[in-house]
Task: structure prediction
Amino acid sequence: MKPSDITDDLRPFFFKDGKYLDPLIISVTGHRDIWPDAEILLMDSLSDFLTDFFKKESKKRPQRPIVFLDGMATGADQLVATVVNEVRNSFDPGFITLIAVFPMPEEDYIQDFSVPETQRTFEDALDCVDAKIALSLTRSNQELRNRGEKIHRTEQYVLLAEFLANSCNNLIALWDGQNFDNPKPGSTTDVITRYLNPADDSIVSLQEAIEPYRNRERCILTKRLKGSLITLYTPRDSFLKQPNLLYPAGKTAIVTFPKSAQQTVFKKMDKIENKKWNWYKEGLHFQCAGCGGCCTGAPGYVWLTPEEEKQIADFLNISLDEFEKTYTRMVYGLRRSLKEIPQSNYDCVFFNSETKRCSIYDVRPAQCRTWPFWDSLLKSKSDWDEASQSCPGCNQGPLIPFEEIEIRRKKISV
Ligand code: SF4
Ligand code: SF4
Result:
């Protein structure tokens, strides 16, 4: 945003004593359908990242405020707004501002939140914001409205994507990295690709569409000279169906604004990725000591694929239906996990606490077969060291070569 683009209601966040403060503007984008289990992890990661970021900024440029532009949609937008609102309490009042940007007039946008639960979270999220702005209807939508017809909502979401992408210095994206080649109009990936490839011609048409900025000499959208795309790997509700997950939830990647978007983003992500899985290049020692510790303890999940379910049901000589009812539970209506026994220290239902053995050892799920070579335990040496505190088999026995570890790690993302 440039000084000439600021409307009166936004002036207090951008000017002090008549002087333009040139704030650092951060737009927010992300998936609506975040996998519920990842939410806490994401909030923690984001909170750590923002605390650190705000500290550095307040030291480097104490006079330069930070302004967030956030669409406030269900999921990522609201999650970021909540975290920003919490984290900013530790900084000077006025240093961090949160502005809600609606893709259409508020009375239209509110229809996206017709379910009572989403309406409540939307209202809660709005409690955090300092100001609201609403993009006006596009010309064609205005015509539809004038004729008493339904507006095309996607058109408004494209407008929002363009606005968020082109009004900021930095973009925070809670994203799963998918569909980069073919982004759905108005989606998270669409915002990211627009941020990375600002298109002059679309800015012109957008200029005409934005109220109250219409008829201004200069469009609210200005190209960034320099900025960063900050992505937090964010699994979606459907992620359990994706076989090849690369990044653990909450992973932060900061990508300095690139010239050629796609290649640069992925090259940098690959570099980070390779670096992460590099620390055990020489292999790791492991030999199970048979203590049974990984089949008991704190509550958790032992995920099952449909094939594994069938295999275990056959092994037990029962029907699939009986197996599911007796030994499994459905998690978030998405995927089955083995049951645990809360009265017995959350033992897995197939753990024999007397022999300390798995009673379905030959057909145990991939998650059990691949332990302890899981993403979550291998992401750094300290994670591995932490795991070795509870698993006496880690760092013992024969050396498992890097290639073998990778085969196991990539079998399932845990
Ligand atoms: S915690 Fe480690 S040593 Fe104990 S049973 Fe599990 S893999 Fe084996
Ligand atoms: S299925 Fe077997 S190996 Fe896996 S957690 Fe249960 S008891 Fe342990």
Residues 200-226, 240-266 have pLDDT under 50 and may be disordered.
